[in-house]
Design brief:
It is built from 9 helices and 7 strands; from the N terminus they run H-H-H-H-H-H-H-H-E-E-E-E-E-E-E-H. The chain is of the alpha+beta class. The protein folds into 2 domains: 197 residues, no CATH class; 121 residues, PH-domain like (Roll). Strands 4-3-2-1-7-6-5 form a 7-stranded antiparallel sheet, sandwiched between helices. Helix 1 crosses helix 4. It is elongated, with a radius of gyration of 26 Å.
Length: 341
């Protein structure tokens, strides 16, 4: 049971380090120094956290993080810098919790603790990156305060119920591993949108003419999908945001073929495989939503209930999105034209 308790303490501290390393060290050190908690014999090595230099450094860095975490985009910059610190801190605290039983065991614990800290750090960074796409600052403040409270609450749980903390850490780690591909895809899309906005002057202006160029590998996928001629009318890079029939956060191309009656295609690559989505233009409702980093194109088939396909485009393509809206509306109206009228 002692080894389970120590593992619970080690993994719990590692996971918390990925969220807020400085608060974890500061609260643990103050609790020991002020005798709020009494260390069991196997945890006497945590006395090092009570050293005044450790407490001062942790306190100053936590104060900096406390304010940086509540300012949109500054928190993302701070998290980027912490990528090189939090996993190392989590590994050190995990080794400290195990009490240096054996060098080989220390290496194993450091690898697991550092990996868990990196996983929780990545989840936090991805969440913050997504929240920052909203222009209002209140979500950042609320999320930062919630993280601080959860760190202090989990530290209390680790001290009083380390076995429960061990079980929760295992569940937490498994859930994060399952969600990590989705989190990384979302981070990749947001970073692409940020880079596109910052690099807006370098984007080519098409001056009212929609581009039709696509990479050769994408063109081959179009050729495989189409039984007839596959002349491209227009094509723009984008990412899937939400759809009932297609995965979200997949980067690709929205493509229209030359015939007015031809459906739209979205082609994207997820992992090693190509995914395709066919969108008939008949009775298709088109809407545009402008966001801070992007423009969203919403395509809703009238005869398919609540089905809706949402695609995200970089801000420099705002003018082209309006042209796409006009073209899709023309294609949709072609089907509603009655030659007898």
């Amino acid at each position: 049971m002692d080894i389970i308790q120590q593992l619970g303490t080690a993994l719990g501290l590692a996971a918390l380090s990925g969220i807020n390393l400085y608060l974890t060290v500061l609260v643990a050190g103050l609790a020991i120094r002020l005798h709020w908690i009494v260390l069991a014999p196997q945890y006497t090595q945590f006395e090092v956290l009570t050293h005044p230099v450790v407490l001062w450094i942790a306190g100053i860095l936590f104060a900096l993080q406390f304010f940086a975490d509540k300012i949109p985009w500054l928190d993302t910059l701070w998290d980027t810098l912490q990528t090189f610190i939090r996993p190392v801190g989590g590994a050190c605290l995990a080794v400290l919790a195990m009490g240096y039983p054996h060098p080989v065991f220390n290496v194993i614990v450091a690898l697991i603790g550092g990996g868990l800290a990196l996983t929780s750090h990545t989840a936090k960074s991805g969440t913050r990156l997504f929240v920052n796409t909203s222009p209002e600052p209140f979500s950042n403040i609320f999320l930062s305060l919630a993280e601080d409270v959860s760190v202090m609450g989990t530290l209390i749980l680790i001290y009083f119920k380390p076995v429960i903390a061990f079980g929760l850490c295992l569940i937490f780690f498994i859930v994060l591993i399952l969600l990590m591909p989705r989190i990384l895809r979302r981070m990749r899309i947001i970073l692409w949108l940020i880079g596109s906005k910052l690099n807006a002057p370098a984007w080519q202006s098409f001056e009212g003419i929609l581009p039709s160029w696509i990479p050769p590998v994408v063109h081959r996928q179009v050729t495989h999908l189409c039984t007839g001629p596959s002349e491209i009318a227009w094509a723009l890079p984008c990412a899937s945001a939400s759809s009932s029939t297609f995965p979200a956060h997949v980067r690709g191309w929205l493509i229209a073929l030359a015939p007015s009656t031809a459906p739209l295609y979205f082609l994207g690559r997820k992992g090693w495989s190509w995914l395709s989505l066919l969108i008939p233009v008949e009775n298709l409702i088109v809407q545009i939503e402008s966001r801070f980093l992007s423009d969203r194109l919403l395509l809703s088939p009238q005869d398919q209930g609540n089905m809706r396909h949402v695609f995200v485009f970089p801000r420099p393509l705002a003018n082209e999105i309006r042209l796409i809206e006009e073209d899709i509306n023309r294609r949709s109206q072609f089907f509603s034209f009655d030659p007898k009228s």
